[in-house]
Amino acid sequence: MAIGKRESLTANDWTSAALDALARGGLGAVAVEPLAKSLGTTKGSFYWHFTDRNALIAAALERWEQRDTDRVIAAVDRTPDVATRLRKLLRLVFTAVVGDPGAGAGSVELALQATATHPLVAPTLARVTERRLAYLTSLFAELGLSQARARDRGLLAYAAFLGHAQLAHSTPDLVPAGRALSSHIDRLIETLTVVED
User: In angstroms, what CA-CA distances link 194 with 49, 83, 155?
Assistant: First the structure.
């Protein structure tokens, strides 16, 4: 990499690289020296933007929360009809976890679950999980379920997402592909969104 490129690295570049490393190798993969090498720079560039590794991890966690929770909810909320909104959300998240095991939306989630007690990860993971569950609960409540049943259904949907992500990550050959995947996701969504009287 040319010197000019190294000088133009930003905190955003480091944060993106850290999030990619986290998705591919877990929290342990967020290490300054290997990241510097992958970015074609030196550790000095890192210390220009961050005080230490924990600051980089915190920035990556914040980016993950914004990208995979805040922006997803904002995008889905643009759909006026609640039933369509819920189906859109479920299709988006179930589809996003399939593909490259180190790059899917579920990869960061699974990496964080594996280090859920880490002092930086625990509060972020708890906040994101509660926010997602609250959003799912609100959608199911808008569909007409009582608050308690809406919370139960939201929890079921979130557990299905985590299980689907784990399956796609650890045994991708078991997850349907192509049209079969689309049909599989349709059945998941249908099962999760049925509102009985």
Answer: 49, 10, 15
Quote the tokens at residue 185.
């996701």
* Residue labelled with tokens 């230490």: 52
Locate the domains of the chain by residue range. Answer: 3-193
State the fold for domain 3-193: Tetracycline Repressor; domain 2 (1.10.357)
| H or E element that contains 179 | helix 178-193
Does the predicted model carry a pTM greater than 0.70? yes
96-132 tens-digit pLDDT: 887 655 555 678 888 999 999 999 999 999 999 999 9
Q: What is the DSSP string of 132-173?
A: HHHHHHHHHHHTT--HHHHHHHHHHHHHHHHHHHHHHHH-GG
Give the whole-angstrom CA distance, residue 147 versus residue 149: 6
